[in-house]
Design brief:
Elements: H1 9-30, H2 36-50, E1 54-58, H3 61-71, E2 79-83, H4 89-96, E3 100-104, H5 115-121, E4 126-129, H6 141-151, E5 154-158, E6 166-168, E7 174-176, E8 183-187, E9 201-205, H7 208-218, E10 222-224, E11 227-228, H8 239-250, H9 252-270, E12 276-277, E13 292-296, H10 301-310, H11 340-348, E14 349-352, H12 360-375
Parallel strand pairs: 2-3, 2-4, 4-5, 5-8
Antiparallel strand pairs: 1-9, 6-7, 8-9, 10-11, 12-13, 13-14
Helix pairs in contact: 1-8, 2-8, 3-4, 3-7, 9-12
This protein binds pyridoxal-5'-phosphate.
Length: about 375
Amino acid sequence: MKPIQMVDLVGQYQKIKSEVDAALQRVIDSAAFINGPEVKEFEKELAAYLKAEEVIACANGTDALQIAMMALGLKPGDEVITPSFTFVATVEVVALLGIEPVFADVLPGTFNIDPADIMRKITPKTKAIVPVHLFGQTADMDPIMAIAKEHDLFVIEDNCQAIGSDYTFSDGTKKKSGTIGHIGTTSFFPSKNLGCYGDGGAIFTNDDDLAKRIRKVCNHGSDVRYYHEVVGVNSRLDAMQAAILRIKLRKLDAYSAARNAVASTYDKAFADLAHISTPARSSNSDHVFHQYTMRVTGGHRDSLKQHLEAHGIPAMIYYPVSCHMQAAYKSTRFPEGSLPVTEQLTHEVLSLPMSTELDNEQLTHITDTVKGFFKQ
Ligand SMILES: *Cc1c(COP(=O)(O)O)cnc(C)c1O
């Protein structure tokens, strides 16, 4: 059996090696390393895939969030509502800009932000909501957009983990995750569903004026070289990464299907295990399974993780500590116990290997090992 990894990027590269190698050679021969045609073409192709008006590439997913907040003019004293059960980047950029992160709890099934708790957290200072489409499913955007409209708030979708998922509105229309709010952001970190071979990110919007402001912020606050109208940052995707992403974008739907096949295998194998809750499917979003994250109850999570590791199976806890319990972000406004679902999840979640390259032999070893643990 091939060794099992959380994500098998080498196996994935082997299947597209000739295309990737040729594309990289093309960029090197052109010497157009920064911006240039590869980046422009990738932005256009991703916009077409997402059915978004504009895609602006940038250096990583964390920058994408920061640039989105800068382009929207969020400033110190404003409040932004985010989940606490997320990767820290979401909250970090809020804090860096002097904005106050206000944490909403998540739903116990999908792990996505709870619209009812967003309502409870709105104050006169609230300026934006940042739903995070965690582990591959779009948060419940119908009620989130309704709340935003009623209270005149911006919505920035952190779509780092769900690129390619479709959200179905109550009237039956569908949109790609990340194209529903005012701005969507994503990361092309290698292990993400659409990953490059280094760092990368992008920002999406359907608003032309906002797109212009985003491009300006990315480019040192400048439209015309050496004239700077606003304070900006330097955040660019390089041409080699764009060339790789153009190839992988064409395979993204097939990659999502491969991830779903792995998830179905896990779901079936664990359906009868009393202490495992397999991931709940949202009633209005596709799942692209950035992670297969289950809940292990009865206090068995950490011993199951050890058992898997002893059998050559990596398993990860995303996330062991929620943002409001982190030393850097603790505040008296969100003491321990204030976000009960989030806090319970940090004790129960366990993510199994998930990649486009897991074979049947590896999957059987994983499912047998999980089942074996509960038979002991
Ligand atoms: C990966 C990730 C980010 C950050 O992306 P980077 O490219 O690593 O900066 C932000 N938010 C979420 C939810 C992520 O998963």
